[in-house]
Amino acid sequence: MKAKSIFAAAVMVSMPLSAAAGDMSVATFLAKADALQAKGILALGSSDFKKLKSEVDAASVAYKARLNSDKAAGKLAHSCPPKGAKFNSDHLLAHFRSYPANQRSSISVRTGVSDLMKKRFPC
Questions:
Q1: Beta strand residue intervals within 10-96, DSSP E
Q2: Which of 88, 92, 68 is closest to 79 using CA atoms?
Q3: Residue 113: how many CA atoms within 13 Å on its side-chain side?
Q4: Alpha carbon 61 to chain centroid distance?
């Protein structure tokens, strides 16, 4: 199995999800993702594999909660994903890499996922 396929399985997301909150930086996430991809099939046994998935899951839960909260408060929607909206590791990594390298350490995965959804599913 290709490393990219392994990583894609780790971060494939569909809403809604349940997970604990996490605030890993985009810089740390990318470093761990690159290291996992270099491991190939051995990445499946890595604790970082689970950490990255948990980070994306938590960010997705926070994003969905924000959408629901804004809707309940009558605020304009941040973004407008269709029911069952998904993104894969290619989308996520490309988006994270679009941030300037010198800013990645100050951007959380939570913010990155929210920005990705706004970019992919504008209202």
A1: 13-14, 86-87
A2: 68
A3: 35
A4: 10
3-state SS record for 75-104: CCCCCCCCCCCEECHHHHHHHHHHCCHHHH
Query: Does the pLDDT at position 3 exceed 50?
Result: no
Distance CA 123, CA 109 (A): 22
65-103, pLDDT tens digit by residue?
A: 999 999 999 999 899 999 888 888 899 999 999 999 999
How far are the Cα atoms of 3, 8, 72, 79, 83 from residue 112, in angstroms, in the given order?
23, 17, 23, 14, 20
- 4, 10, 25, 42, 81 from 85: Cα distances, Å: 21, 17, 24, 30, 6
Token pair of 95 as six digits = 């988006």
